[in-house]
Amino acid sequence: MNPSCCHQRAPQPTASATATAPTGDDAPPPPPTPPAPQKTWLRRARGEAGWVLPATLLALLPKCPLCLAAYVALATGVSLSGASAHLLLRTLTVLSAGTLALCVARRVVGSPQSKHLFHHLRRQTQP
Length: 127
Prior knowledge:
The protein is mainly α. The protein has a domain at 43-127. 64% of the residues lie in helices and 0% in strands. The protein has helices at 15-20, 41-60, 65-76, 82-110, 112-125. Helix 2 (41-60) crosses helix 4 (82-110) and helix 3 packs across helix 4 (82-110). The chain starts with 14 loop residues before the first helix and ends with a helix.
């Protein structure tokens, strides 16, 4: 493991701390970082529901707008025209796909591997 890795970075001192901070070998080691808070089961369930609900809706959504109108009429008693059902079908499809894309983006950007990679890419591009 690289000793100058981003996971062992010390916090940046403030302007007032740099004026009085000892320099050289006499400097004390940085304070340890606190452990990450544990996720509760409710947070984990909410995070997984973000994946499960749009994926299930996308999988069970009928392809025919008239079938969607029939399902809505059976479930709620409200009838939809063909044009309204078509608009509702496309809206639900876009919202479900967009929510899944957002979940994927959060998972990729929030992963420790990507944070490590982004940090090293940023260090390489800085002069």
